[in-house]
Amino acid sequence: MRNRRIVKSIDINSTPIALDLKIYGQNLILGTRQGVFEASINFLNEETSLKRKLSRVFDSKCTHLSAKAGEVFISSVDGLFRSTYWSDKNRLTVEKKSLESTSLKTNWHAYNLVNFKDSTKFRFYCNRTEKVVGESLFAQDEGEATMMRINEFGFKQFVSDSYFSNTINLDDILFVFNSNTNVFVVFKNGTFKNYGISLGNNDEKDFQAIAHEYSLPALNVAELGKPLNALTVPTGTLVEFFDRVILAKKGLHIIENQAVSSMRTYPNSVRYRNIITTFKEDSLTITALNPFY
Q1: What is the CA radius of gyration of the chain?
Q2: Whole-number Cα distances in Å, 220 to 148, 191, 226
Protein backbone atom coordinates (compact mmCIF):
# COMPACT_ATOMS: atom_id res chain seq x y z
CA MET A 1 0.00 0.00 0.00
CA ARG A 2 1.43 3.38 -1.03
CA ASN A 3 1.78 6.15 1.51
CA ARG A 4 -0.41 9.15 0.83
CA ARG A 5 1.09 12.60 0.47
CA ILE A 6 -0.22 16.08 -0.19
CA VAL A 7 0.92 16.78 -3.72
CA LYS A 8 -0.70 20.17 -4.21
CA SER A 9 1.80 22.39 -2.41
CA ILE A 10 1.05 25.74 -0.82
CA ASP A 11 2.92 28.82 -2.05
CA ILE A 12 4.72 29.93 1.11
CA ASN A 13 5.38 33.37 -0.38
CA SER A 14 1.65 34.10 -0.65
CA THR A 15 0.43 32.16 2.41
CA PRO A 16 0.72 33.80 5.87
CA ILE A 17 2.78 31.97 8.50
CA ALA A 18 0.57 29.74 10.63
CA LEU A 19 0.38 30.47 14.36
CA ASP A 20 -1.86 27.41 14.73
CA LEU A 21 -3.00 24.65 12.38
CA LYS A 22 -5.80 22.05 12.43
CA ILE A 23 -6.80 19.28 10.04
CA TYR A 24 -10.41 18.56 10.89
CA GLY A 25 -13.29 16.97 8.98
CA GLN A 26 -11.12 16.76 5.84
CA ASN A 27 -10.40 20.48 6.06
CA LEU A 28 -7.09 22.30 6.54
CA ILE A 29 -7.46 25.31 8.87
CA LEU A 30 -4.66 27.84 9.44
CA GLY A 31 -4.64 30.48 12.15
CA THR A 32 -2.35 33.37 11.15
CA ARG A 33 -1.59 37.01 11.85
CA GLN A 34 -3.75 37.88 8.87
CA GLY A 35 -6.74 35.81 9.99
CA VAL A 36 -8.04 32.27 9.56
CA PHE A 37 -7.63 30.47 6.22
CA GLU A 38 -9.04 27.11 5.16
CA ALA A 39 -9.21 24.65 2.30
CA SER A 40 -10.82 21.24 1.83
CA ILE A 41 -8.57 18.20 1.48
CA ASN A 42 -9.27 15.39 -0.97
CA PHE A 43 -8.40 12.07 0.67
CA LEU A 44 -10.32 9.89 -1.78
CA ASN A 45 -7.77 9.74 -4.57
CA GLU A 46 -4.52 7.82 -4.38
CA GLU A 47 -2.66 11.09 -4.11
CA THR A 48 -4.04 13.39 -1.43
CA SER A 49 -4.47 17.01 -2.53
CA LEU A 50 -6.14 20.28 -1.67
CA LYS A 51 -9.53 20.57 -3.37
CA ARG A 52 -9.20 24.34 -3.65
CA LYS A 53 -6.92 27.21 -2.74
CA LEU A 54 -6.78 28.48 0.81
CA SER A 55 -9.39 31.17 1.38
CA ARG A 56 -9.78 33.58 4.29
CA VAL A 57 -12.83 33.02 6.52
CA PHE A 58 -11.86 35.32 9.42
CA ASP A 59 -9.93 38.60 9.29
CA SER A 60 -8.34 39.12 12.74
CA LYS A 61 -5.06 37.71 14.01
CA CYS A 62 -5.69 34.17 15.31
CA THR A 63 -3.57 32.76 18.12
CA HIS A 64 -5.32 29.43 18.74
CA LEU A 65 -7.80 27.03 17.12
CA SER A 66 -9.84 24.36 18.89
CA ALA A 67 -12.10 21.92 17.02
CA LYS A 68 -14.72 19.44 18.20
CA ALA A 69 -18.34 18.40 17.54
CA GLY A 70 -18.26 19.95 14.06
CA GLU A 71 -17.28 23.36 15.43
CA VAL A 72 -14.09 25.41 15.53
CA PHE A 73 -13.44 28.03 18.23
CA ILE A 74 -11.12 30.86 17.25
CA SER A 75 -9.00 32.71 19.81
CA SER A 76 -8.05 36.07 18.33
CA VAL A 77 -6.94 39.58 19.20
CA ASP A 78 -10.62 40.57 18.96
CA GLY A 79 -11.80 37.86 21.35
CA LEU A 80 -13.31 34.38 21.17
CA PHE A 81 -15.37 33.46 18.10
CA ARG A 82 -17.50 30.40 17.41
CA SER A 83 -17.60 28.85 13.93
CA THR A 84 -19.19 25.72 12.49
CA TYR A 85 -19.16 23.22 9.64
CA TRP A 86 -22.78 22.18 10.21
CA SER A 87 -24.15 24.63 7.65
CA ASP A 88 -21.54 23.63 5.03
CA LYS A 89 -19.05 20.79 5.60
CA ASN A 90 -16.70 22.29 2.98
CA ARG A 91 -16.75 25.82 4.33
CA LEU A 92 -16.25 27.17 7.84
CA THR A 93 -18.94 29.66 8.87
CA VAL A 94 -17.82 32.14 11.53
CA GLU A 95 -20.30 33.98 13.75
CA LYS A 96 -19.94 37.76 13.52
CA LYS A 97 -20.30 38.46 17.25
CA SER A 98 -17.63 37.33 19.70
CA LEU A 99 -18.45 35.21 22.73
CA GLU A 100 -15.87 37.03 24.84
CA SER A 101 -13.66 40.05 24.28
CA THR A 102 -10.50 38.22 25.38
CA SER A 103 -9.23 34.74 24.53
CA LEU A 104 -5.69 33.41 24.80
CA LYS A 105 -6.71 29.82 23.95
CA THR A 106 -9.47 27.27 24.52
CA ASN A 107 -9.55 23.66 25.66
CA TRP A 108 -12.25 21.02 26.08
CA HIS A 109 -13.84 19.29 29.06
CA ALA A 110 -15.72 16.51 27.25
CA TYR A 111 -18.08 18.66 25.10
CA ASN A 112 -17.84 21.68 27.40
CA LEU A 113 -15.52 24.54 26.45
CA VAL A 114 -12.91 26.26 28.63
CA ASN A 115 -11.79 29.72 27.48
CA PHE A 116 -8.58 31.11 28.96
CA LYS A 117 -8.65 34.89 29.16
CA ASP A 118 -4.99 34.86 30.20
CA SER A 119 -2.56 32.41 31.82
CA THR A 120 -4.38 32.42 35.19
CA LYS A 121 -8.12 32.94 34.49
CA PHE A 122 -10.70 30.96 32.55
CA ARG A 123 -14.43 30.76 31.85
CA PHE A 124 -16.17 27.37 31.70
CA TYR A 125 -19.05 26.95 29.22
CA CYS A 126 -21.43 24.06 29.96
CA ASN A 127 -22.95 22.69 26.74
CA ARG A 128 -25.79 20.30 25.96
CA THR A 129 -25.33 17.89 23.07
CA GLU A 130 -27.34 15.56 20.86
CA LYS A 131 -26.41 12.50 18.79
CA VAL A 132 -26.32 12.92 15.02
CA VAL A 133 -27.39 9.77 13.21
CA GLY A 134 -25.56 8.88 10.00
CA GLU A 135 -22.77 11.45 10.39
CA SER A 136 -19.26 10.10 10.89
CA LEU A 137 -16.93 12.64 9.27
CA PHE A 138 -16.04 14.56 12.44
CA ALA A 139 -16.51 11.56 14.73
CA GLN A 140 -13.59 9.84 13.03
CA ASP A 141 -11.32 12.79 13.77
CA GLU A 142 -12.37 12.72 17.43
CA GLY A 143 -11.97 8.95 17.89
CA GLU A 144 -15.67 8.56 18.71
CA ALA A 145 -18.14 5.95 17.47
CA THR A 146 -21.05 8.40 17.48
CA MET A 147 -21.07 11.98 16.24
CA MET A 148 -22.23 14.56 18.76
CA ARG A 149 -23.49 18.05 18.06
CA ILE A 150 -23.75 20.98 20.50
CA ASN A 151 -27.41 22.00 20.55
CA GLU A 152 -27.21 24.42 23.49
CA PHE A 153 -23.97 26.30 24.02
CA GLY A 154 -23.13 27.87 27.38
CA PHE A 155 -26.44 27.11 29.12
CA LYS A 156 -24.45 27.56 32.30
CA GLN A 157 -21.13 29.34 32.84
CA PHE A 158 -18.54 29.50 35.60
CA VAL A 159 -15.35 31.49 36.07
CA SER A 160 -12.09 30.30 37.57
CA ASP A 161 -12.35 32.67 40.54
CA SER A 162 -15.45 30.83 41.76
CA TYR A 163 -13.82 27.47 41.00
CA PHE A 164 -10.80 28.16 43.23
CA SER A 165 -12.23 30.64 45.75
CA ASN A 166 -12.84 28.12 48.53
CA THR A 167 -9.66 26.10 48.07
CA ILE A 168 -6.64 28.28 47.29
CA ASN A 169 -5.48 31.88 47.37
CA LEU A 170 -6.00 33.30 43.86
CA ASP A 171 -2.97 35.59 44.23
CA ASP A 172 -0.72 32.52 44.56
CA ILE A 173 -1.51 31.25 41.04
CA LEU A 174 1.20 31.63 38.39
CA PHE A 175 -0.21 29.52 35.54
CA VAL A 176 -3.34 27.45 34.87
CA PHE A 177 -4.34 25.05 32.11
CA ASN A 178 -6.78 22.18 31.72
CA SER A 179 -6.83 18.80 30.04
CA ASN A 180 -10.32 17.37 29.74
CA THR A 181 -11.59 16.86 33.31
CA ASN A 182 -8.43 18.08 35.06
CA VAL A 183 -7.17 21.57 35.90
CA PHE A 184 -3.43 21.97 36.45
CA VAL A 185 -2.06 24.84 38.52
CA VAL A 186 1.51 26.07 38.86
CA PHE A 187 1.90 28.25 41.95
CA LYS A 188 4.34 31.12 42.37
CA ASN A 189 6.37 29.06 44.85
CA GLY A 190 6.82 26.29 42.25
CA THR A 191 4.22 23.90 43.65
CA PHE A 192 2.47 22.01 40.82
CA LYS A 193 -0.97 20.50 41.45
CA ASN A 194 -3.75 18.76 39.54
CA TYR A 195 -7.37 19.45 40.50
CA GLY A 196 -10.46 17.68 39.22
CA ILE A 197 -13.61 19.20 37.71
CA SER A 198 -16.97 17.66 38.54
CA LEU A 199 -20.28 18.89 37.16
CA GLY A 200 -22.40 16.06 38.55
CA ASN A 201 -25.34 14.48 36.74
CA ASN A 202 -27.74 17.31 37.43
CA ASP A 203 -27.67 20.33 35.11
CA GLU A 204 -28.52 22.57 38.03
CA LYS A 205 -25.71 21.32 40.23
CA ASP A 206 -23.06 23.92 41.00
CA PHE A 207 -19.60 23.82 39.49
CA GLN A 208 -17.54 21.53 41.74
CA ALA A 209 -13.81 21.75 42.29
CA ILE A 210 -11.45 19.29 43.95
CA ALA A 211 -13.08 16.03 42.97
CA HIS A 212 -9.49 14.89 43.43
CA GLU A 213 -6.20 16.62 44.04
CA TYR A 214 -2.63 15.45 43.81
CA SER A 215 0.77 17.08 43.58
CA LEU A 216 3.20 16.83 40.68
CA PRO A 217 6.98 17.37 40.90
CA ALA A 218 7.68 20.94 42.00
CA LEU A 219 9.05 23.36 39.38
CA ASN A 220 11.92 25.75 40.08
CA VAL A 221 10.14 28.82 38.70
CA ALA A 222 12.87 31.11 40.04
CA GLU A 223 15.22 29.51 37.51
CA LEU A 224 12.75 28.46 34.80
CA GLY A 225 10.50 31.50 34.82
CA LYS A 226 6.77 31.51 34.07
CA PRO A 227 5.35 28.62 32.01
CA LEU A 228 4.35 29.58 28.46
CA ASN A 229 2.33 26.49 27.58
CA ALA A 230 1.49 23.06 28.91
CA LEU A 231 0.07 19.82 27.52
CA THR A 232 -0.66 16.41 28.95
CA VAL A 233 0.69 13.00 28.02
CA PRO A 234 -0.20 9.60 29.57
CA THR A 235 0.51 9.88 33.32
CA GLY A 236 2.55 13.04 32.80
CA THR A 237 2.59 16.73 31.89
CA LEU A 238 4.66 18.66 29.36
CA VAL A 239 5.53 22.25 30.32
CA GLU A 240 7.11 24.83 28.00
CA PHE A 241 9.32 27.61 29.34
CA PHE A 242 11.23 30.36 27.55
CA ASP A 243 14.35 28.29 26.91
CA ARG A 244 13.36 24.66 27.52
CA VAL A 245 10.60 22.05 27.63
CA ILE A 246 10.23 19.87 30.71
CA LEU A 247 8.33 16.62 31.18
CA ALA A 248 6.86 16.10 34.66
CA LYS A 249 6.48 12.32 34.86
CA LYS A 250 7.98 10.40 37.76
CA GLY A 251 10.31 13.32 38.27
CA LEU A 252 11.38 16.14 35.93
CA HIS A 253 12.98 15.43 32.55
CA ILE A 254 14.36 17.93 30.02
CA ILE A 255 12.83 17.23 26.59
CA GLU A 256 14.25 20.35 24.92
CA ASN A 257 17.09 22.50 26.26
CA GLN A 258 16.28 25.40 23.96
CA ALA A 259 13.34 27.56 22.96
CA VAL A 260 10.65 25.96 20.78
CA SER A 261 8.09 27.63 18.53
CA SER A 262 5.40 25.10 19.44
CA MET A 263 4.83 21.59 20.75
CA ARG A 264 2.21 18.90 20.15
CA THR A 265 0.88 15.84 21.88
CA TYR A 266 -1.73 13.41 20.57
CA PRO A 267 -4.00 12.42 23.50
CA ASN A 268 -6.86 11.15 21.31
CA SER A 269 -4.69 8.92 19.14
CA VAL A 270 -4.40 5.20 19.81
CA ARG A 271 -1.03 4.95 18.06
CA TYR A 272 0.61 8.27 18.88
CA ARG A 273 -0.49 9.28 22.36
CA ASN A 274 3.00 8.47 23.71
CA ILE A 275 4.63 10.79 21.16
CA ILE A 276 5.75 14.40 21.69
CA THR A 277 6.56 16.67 18.73
CA THR A 278 8.50 19.89 19.35
CA PHE A 279 9.02 22.47 16.61
CA LYS A 280 11.99 24.82 16.28
CA GLU A 281 12.64 27.44 13.61
CA ASP A 282 14.54 25.04 11.34
CA SER A 283 13.68 21.56 12.61
CA LEU A 284 11.34 19.34 14.58
CA THR A 285 12.00 16.62 17.14
CA ILE A 286 9.86 13.55 17.77
CA THR A 287 10.22 12.07 21.26
CA ALA A 288 8.82 8.67 22.27
CA LEU A 289 7.83 8.45 25.94
CA ASN A 290 7.90 4.66 26.16
CA PRO A 291 10.11 3.00 27.19
CA PHE A 292 12.35 5.99 27.93
CA TYR A 293 10.22 7.97 30.45
Answers
A1: 20
A2: 42, 9, 10
